[in-house]
Amino acid sequence: MRTIFHPSEMPPSGFYRVLTASVVPRPIAWVSTLSSEGVANLAPYSFFSVSSANPPVVQFTSVGRKDSLRNIEATGEFVINLASEPLMEQVNASSADYEHGISELDELGISHEPSEKISPPRVAESPIAIEATLHRIIEVGDSFVVMGNVVAVAVRPEFLAEDGLPSFADIAPLSRLGRTEWGLPPRVRSIDRPTRP
C-alpha cells in the first residue's frame, strides 16, 4: 500500500520537501543578472527547463521574490550558467541569503566574463552559458516562472564533442535532489527512438 501525501493536509514547507524529493534529478540554472544599479547577482535555481525549441525559450522558477527576479523585471536580461561538478561548492555557496546589493560573484571570488549579446556577465568557468532576454513572467502561487528568449548559447570549446554539440560526459552537470542531496553525473545509455510501425 502506498503512502499518500495530500497538499491540502500539510503545511506548504512540508509538501515542498515531498515534491523536491520526488521530482529528481533537477538540473540547476545558475542565474546571473544585473540590478538597475549595475550590481551583479548570481543564484542557483533547481526548477529549470526548456519551454520552447522554436522559438528557443528557457525557463526557471523563483520560489518567492528574490534578487534575480527583481533584476530581470528591471533590466529584462539574464544568463543561465550550467552548473557542473567542479563548481559544486561555489554553486552551493551562492545560494546563501546575501543582502540586496551584494554581488555573490565578488563575495565568493567567482570569475566572470562579458556576455555576447546582453549585459549580465557569464560565469567564466561554466561550460555553457545561455543568454536570454525576458519573454514573460508568470505568477503561480508563491512562485514566479521566468521565461527567457534565448539570444545566444556560449559553449567553452573543451566541452564540445566531435559532432560539434556539447558533450554530456565533459560537462558533468550537477542536479538537485531532495533534502540536502546533490546529484552527480549519472550513467548514460544511448538508445534510438523507435520508428512508426
Molecular structure report:
The chain is built from five helices and twelve strands. With 197 residues, the protein is of the alpha+beta class. It has a single domain, classed as Electron Transport, Fmn-binding Protein, Chain A (Pnp Oxidase, Chain A). The strands form three sheets. Strands 3-2-6-9-10-5-4 form a seven-stranded antiparallel sheet. The protein has a three-stranded antiparallel sheet with strand order 1-11-12, with no helix packed on it. Strands 7-8 form a two-stranded antiparallel ribbon. Strand 9 (128-140) and strand 10 (143-155) form a beta hairpin. It is globular and about 55 Å long.
Brief rundown of the structure:
The protein is an alpha+beta fold and 197 residues long. It has 5 helices and 12 strands.
CATH topology: Pnp Oxidase, Chain A
Number of helices: 5
Q: Which superfamily, in CATH terms, is the homologous superfamily?
A: Electron Transport, Fmn-binding Protein, Chain A
Q: What is the top-level CATH class? A: Mainly Beta
Total individual domains = 1
